[in-house]
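Rotation project, supervised by the postdoc (A.L.). Task for the rotation student: set up a whole-complex structure prediction and record inputs and outputs verbatim in this book. Inputs entered:
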Amino acid sequence: MDEVAERITAETEGVVRTVSELTILPTRWNGSARLVDEGGFLARKRWQCDIEIDRSIVNKDERWPTLVHEAIHSVSAGLTREAYNKMRGWEEGPAENLQRIILSEVMQRLGITVDQGVVAERIASHVFNPFNEAIEEIRIALSEGGHVVEPVQFYISLIGIPLIDRPGYVLALGSKRTGLPRIPFIRVFSSNNAILTGR
Amino acid sequence: MPNDKNIPRELLIEQVLFATTLDEIRAARAALRAWITSHPDDRLPLSDGFAMLANLEEAVSEADQSVVA
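Outputs recorded:
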């Protein structure tokens, strides 16, 4: 393994370990971080639970939010091929929103400073923004009933629940809201669930 | 589904996020590549789409194989 590959493996290990500590969720990452050249993506956690990283970003701050995002996938419960195919937005939306919430804490714990311009550019027009906004609309609707206070708690809870069970978990939370009609929440849930399931 | 490099960005993102069949996934990847080639400044926010499409392609391919088997 060359020097760059060793460094990236060490960085990935640090990010995955810190994400696992912050979320109190076990990781399935197998310890392998492979550098690739032509995937198109910046980084990707594969089904085999290794992480691939595009060689072009090994010295760029772009890698940090991407590694945190992939590390969150590594602690995500019930992330199977079948569930992901049906529920992709229920995985990518919570993962990206949680990445945005915990990135600064992860970087602080690792003693790393990230260019905030890179972070802002990613947030402003990210491909997953429709998923991020859909799950956030559901969270806001739930919070109106007082059941979900902190976004970080909501997204860590979602990531810790098997992917296939996340819509049911959220619907149950909505049903538990006292003193509020259910139909407005069901409308918010249904419209956003259609986006999150890619249907 | 639109798949040429001049489609609006929002339609491209929908094509990527909602791709379901292998044909749709591969068309979305081609459209994403074409878009980033013509809009290189858009690579950072859009490139996670490639990761999702790669994972979906493997998931759908395996499901197809299990149906055949």
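Student's summary: Residues 132 and 188 of chain A are 14 Å apart (CA to CA).
Supervisor addendum: The mean pLDDT of chain A is 94.
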